[in-house]
Structures are given as structure tokens and as C-alpha cells.
Recover the amino acids of this structure.
């Protein structure tokens, strides 16, 4: 096949196609280069983050069956940098004989929170109390049992805090309830902090886990990840990793699986699942012997997985969110590199908009406070042009 | 300018152009991605190693003035992945107002061994005894003083052992002498081993050195690099780094400078210079906090340089050379990854030809023998499909 031969290049290694041209695709391409590969990217536009750096870019829509089928042609495997491809279109690729990993059946649990919650409950995995809701009466009934406020969530389509509402009464939720969106409600769990257990699993069934991390959110967006999670007991760490590995197996996940967890006084609860490289794993680029991006590629290609050990006692990643006004990134990079020559900066090439994830900063060190302060200071300076005062 | 705006992308960061589409360009592109950049590559062909993975590829000739001038248009800075661009063409870019780093004046010392030897002697830097030669009588006169065999070298154009001849007599050298190639002759120095001191220097004058490494050659090709150089005395390590930093400054190098050294019973001698990321620095991708590829970009963009500390006590890189027959790389990768999940493999996407550098393998560890054995075993297995017997 012409396309296949042309894409495969001189070494005749497999072609991996990734649907989505965001930063996850961009960083997966970076990892692909070392493996002798060149990611094939389906991007919405030629200025998408990954499209700016990859040679093999197809501009098309992830909601067009024809675009997806054309894209999959000649790929050894198709995978994803987001969860927004409709399940029936993924199944269309599968029915055409393409290898799609994670499969539509697995991915459904990262696309539909209601399906995920129900399945996890069946599997005996601890989740917050929840219910499907469509009326004010449903909501009142749930709150009578679990108390206000409650967390109302769109079953599909939400991310980075979008599609999640904290409501104090049914009246508060009137607009959302009237919108026709499929909804579930959850107890607003009193949590100590959020954790993430990131693992990878190959079709062969091999699996590997990175150390459990603490994730810090602000306004529903992850702003910081600390590896390993400070002060986490061995028992809880093993429980979290075991839970993620068990879920990867039970749901048939291939690739990276990120399990977002609530740590509560009563133990761990699963919050969300993502079946792709995830923000809570960006620290692995420098912080682990095998990054989540390389591991995702190894997993979907059914290569044996790489070592997940840390390269430093403490690794802290701070997200760089877009600020207001002219970012003067080039000038700020100069000053930041002068200030901290050991900081690792990742910029995604995205247009700067307030609150948008446009990069991240990773610090490695021996001391938790010092390493965290360096990462936070770096991200804050790139965003604002101001140094954090200690 | 349209080109510039299109290339710069949404973040408005600078465009770096690299002349040459080989593996150095490929790995520099990989490092550029993290910095929010996308390398602009001038490649001989669309299947060149870097052209397979970069989005911004211009196919053209590095010996065509017009191609070079067109390529440089819109680049913030032009740099190189090899030394084969004729000096007058580099000067043509400079005269057109383009920033070219390293400059033609500096790069000449990595292009012309005779100029380099003469300049280093003027600077008081220790080099092997040498002389320009063009006749059998010249050669005899040199050998009378320094003894046979001698090392005959083409002043320009050689690499990886090409353009270097060990000769036992003037008769031995008759063909080369008759070829009209500009030649120099050197004493065949009795050496203990080869070392390399790799440093980087920015236009601002900031410089940074990685630990001195030992390089192992076979048939004139580097096959293994050990960082840091085992058993090297602190005095010699400091001397080697100091010598490289002093040369970078004296020659006005901007970017990475690799100084290949002979360790002899009488001390260090400079063998060759390279002003670009170099095979003796590939280990820095995983083995140092800042890789030589990121550092080269930081240097030519005049960003402050990154930390060069090691990420493990011992780092060994083994080059992967093309073997005979069908390499079955994909299958071998599976088996190698199963055998050693901590090995880092880099494949360059190049067509496999016997003896050609097609990738490298890096092992990190605590023990010199064990780490070296792992790297060697990995490269040998990928090349031959056979495990080295201990």
C-alpha cells in the first residue's frame, strides 16, 4: 500500500496514528521519534499543537466517519489524545478491521461517567455515592440521602472542570436540568486531597505502574502534580496502584490509564478515568526512566513496557496556564533559564488564552518544599512576568 | 513576512534553521519541541532522518548558495548538523544579514584540520606533531623525525574514519598523495585511550561543560561512550574541560563544541573538533539534566544554558550500526525491551546499511561493568539478532 510504505520510512517500523492534535499528541510524537517512529496525527487544524511539530499530519474532523476511516488507513494502530470521538465512529474503524487502542468498549468508560460509575460499582471499586438524574425531584431525593451541596456532572463531554457544577439546591440546577444533557449526581465527598494512579497495559496483558502522585487542582484544572505523593502510606499507595492495574485489566484498557482518586478519611474513591497520556503523568518525561508518552506507544504497539522508576527523589510539575496580555514568552524564558538552569520547560506552541494550558514546568530535586517552590515559581513567572515572593 | 509568521506558530517563539537532515537534526528537533519550537530543516531528501519527523522541512542542497539563502530567510538563526557547507556559502548567508551560529570564522576550525592544528598550536593547546604534506619527500621528512607509521589525513571532508589513512611508507601513500587532496600528516601517537570534552557556549559568553567522557572507536567509528570517563583523575578532567571551554572562547564557538582528545602517558592532546551536537554527547539525552540538543538550541538562541549534571552515576551509550541482511528491527525491539526494560533505544529512521549509524542505545546505572554490558548487549542484539555471550 502506497501510504503505508511512504509513512513507514526506511526502517519499516509501524505507523501509529493519534486522533487529536493537542499537546498530548505533540509530546507523544516527541517520544515516537526516539523509537524510530513518526506519529501520524489527525488534527483539527494545521496550527494545532502537534501539527506544528509532526511531519505526518492529516487535517480532518474527529467527528467525521470518513475522515477517521481515511486516517486509519495504513496505520498499524490508531489511538487518541482525547475522549471526544463518538463511540459509533470508533466502532466503524474497528469494523473496517483497523486496530484501535484503547478499544471502543474500553474507552466508553472514559467517555461516559455514568457508564463508568455503574461498571466500577459492579466491580466493587469504591466510588462516591452517585445516581443518574434528570429532574429536580431526582436531585432532591439524592440530596435528602446525601446532603447538599451535591456535584452535578454531564455524563459525557466534560473536561478540565467543564461539565461539572456544585449545586446547593434543585433550583440552583434548574438551567442544567432543563438543558437536556444526560446527568449524574454525586455526593460532594469531604476529601483530604486528590491523587492519581497512572499505569499502562499492553494487549499481551503486561502492565506497569508509576508511583502514585498527588494532584492539586484550582477551579477544576490541574495546576500541580507531585511525585511521589507526599506522605502517602505504603498501604494506600499499593491499594491505589493495585486498583488502577485491576481496572486496566477489567476494562480491557490498552495504553496509559490514569485513575484520578479522592483520598478521604475513609479511604480511596475513584473520581475519573482517562485512557491516554494524562496531565498527571507529564512529570514522567524527565522524572521517570520511561515517560508516559513512550509507554503509551510501547503499549499500543504491544512492545514490552519500560521501567517506571523515578530519576530523582522528588519530581514536581506545575502547569503553565495562559495569562492576560502579551506573554513575552521568549523574554521570560531567558530570565527564567537564568534564574533556574535546572528547570525543564515544555511549551505546547498553542495560542495564549487566559486559563488555557499552554505548557508545563518540571523541577527535580531532593527536597519536597524546595522542588515544589521551584516548579511553582517557574510556571508563575512564565505566566505573569512576576516572581512569587516566598 | 508570511513565512516567518507561519513558521513561528501561535506562541511567536523564534525559528531555528538547521542545515542537514541527519540524526543530529532529528534529535535537535525532538529537543526543540519541548522549547515550543519546531526546527526548520534543510534536508537533501524527504526521507532524511530529520525530514521524517519534522514539520518544517525544506528539501535542498547544502552546497547551493540559493538554497541556503532561501532556507535562511525567516530563520532567527541558522545552525548545522554537519561541517560540509562550504565556507564561502556560509559567508554568503552572513553577508545577507542572517545570523549563522557557529559563524563561518569559527566553523572553519571544524572544517579544515590543517587550519585547526595551526590555530591550536598558536594558542598553545597540545596537539600531536603534524605538518602539511603534498609530496612523498614531505612525508619522508616528517617520518624521519617522528617515525613510521604516520597518520595521513585529508584536511577537509573526512568523517567517521573516512579521509584518514595509517601509512607505513611514502609508497603506501602514493595514491592518496597523487589524488590532489590537501593533506596533513600526524605522528601516530601512542595513546592510552580517547576522551571527549563536550561544552556549549552562548553568544553572551556563558559556557557549560558536561563531564568528560571516554569514547571507544572501532575502524575509526565511535562505537561506545562512557560517562563520566572511568578512572579519569580530577586533574585531567579539569584540564580537559578547561581546554574545551578555552577553545570555545578563543575560536568564538556558539553552540555545542565537542573536543576529541587523546589521553597519552604525557598528557592530553587534541585530536578533532566538532561544532554541533556530537556522537560523544548522545548519552546526555537521558544521562544529563540538559541534553546536548537542548543546550545547542539554548546556546544559538542565546538563552541561558541548562544544568549539565548527570542523572545516574554511570551512563553508557552504544552506537547501533547497520548489520547484514534483514534487520527485523521491529521484532528485535520487542525482544530487547523484554530483555532489558530499562534500556533507552533511539532509532534514526535511516535505511539500514552495513556499518552505518542507524541508532544508539543508552544504559544508566550504578556499576560501570554492568551498565556497559547492558548497552553493548542491546546494540549488538539489535544489529545481529544474537545475544552477546558473557
Amino acid at each position: 500500500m502506497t501510504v503505508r510504505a511512504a509513512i513507514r520510512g526506511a526502517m519499516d517500523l509501524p505507523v501509529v496514528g493519534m486522533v487529536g492534535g493537542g499537546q498530548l499528541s505533540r509530546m507523544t510524537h516527541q517520544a515516537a521519534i526516539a523509537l524510530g517512529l513518526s506519529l501520524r496525527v489527525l488534527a483539527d487544524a494545521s496550527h494545532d499543537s502537534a501539527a506544528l511539530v509532526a511531519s505526518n499530519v492529516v487535517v480532518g474532523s474527529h467527528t467525521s466517519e470518513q475522515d477517521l476511516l481515511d486516517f486509519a488507513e495504513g496505520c498499524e494502530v490508531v489511538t487518541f489524545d482525547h475522549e471526544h470521538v463518538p463511540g459509533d465512529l470508533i466502532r466503524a474503524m474497528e469494523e473496517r478491521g483497523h486496530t484501535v487502542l484503547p478499544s471502543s468498549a474500553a474507552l466508553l468508560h472514559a467517555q461516559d461517567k455514568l457508564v463508568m460509575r455503574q461498571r466500577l460499582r459492579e466491580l466493587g471499586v469504591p466510588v462516591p455515592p452517585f445516581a443518574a438524574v434528570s429532574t429536580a425531584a431526582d436531585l432532591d431525593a439524592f440530596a435528602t440521602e446525601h446532603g447538599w451541596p451535591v456535584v452535578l456532572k454531564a455524563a459525557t463531554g466534560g473536561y478540565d472542570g467543564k461539565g461539572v457544577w456544585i449545586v446547593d439546591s434543585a433550583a440552583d440546577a434548574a438551567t442544567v436540568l432543563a438543558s437536556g444533557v444526560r446527568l449524574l449526581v454525586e455526593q460532594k465527598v469531604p476529601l483530604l486531597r486528590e491523587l492519581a494512579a497512572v499505569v499502562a497495559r499492553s494487549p499481551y496483558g503486561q502492565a506497569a505502574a508509576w508511583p502514585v502522585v498527588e494532584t492539586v487542582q484550582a477551579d477544576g484544572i490541574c495546576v500541580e502534580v507531585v511525585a511521589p505523593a507526599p506522605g502517602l502510606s505504603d498501604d494506600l499507595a499499593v491499594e491505589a496502584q493495585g486498583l488502577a492495574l485491576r481496572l486496566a485489566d477489567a476494562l480491557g484498557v490498552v495504553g496509559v490509564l490514569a485513575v484520578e482518586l479522592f483520598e478521604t478519611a475513609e479511604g480511596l474513591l475513584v473520581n475519573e478515568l482517562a485512557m491516554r497520556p494524562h496531565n498527571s503523568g507529564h512529570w514522567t518525561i524527565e522524572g521517570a526512566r520511561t515517560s508516559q508518552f513512550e509507554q503509551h506507544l510501547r503499549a499500543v504497539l504491544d512492545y514490552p513496557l519500560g521501567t517506571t522508576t523515578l530519576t530523582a527523589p522528588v519530581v514536581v510539575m506545575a502547569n503553565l496556564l495562559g495569562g492576560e496580555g502579551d506573554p513575552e514568552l521568549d523574554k521570560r524564558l531567558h530570565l527564567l533559564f537564568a534564574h533556574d538552569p535546572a528547570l525543564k520547560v515544555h511549551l505546547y506552541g498553542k495560542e495564549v488564552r487566559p486559563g488555557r494550558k499552554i505548557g508545563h514546568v518540571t523541577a527535580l530535586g531532593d527536597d519536597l518544599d524546595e522542588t515544589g517552590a521551584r516548579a511553582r515559581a517557574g510556571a508563575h513567572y512564565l505566566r505573569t512576568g512576576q516572581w512569587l515572593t516566598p
Observations:
- Chain A touches chain B through 58 residues (CB under 8 Å).
- Chain A is about 35% helix and 25% strand.
- Residues 83 and 111 of chain A are 6 Å apart (CA to CA).
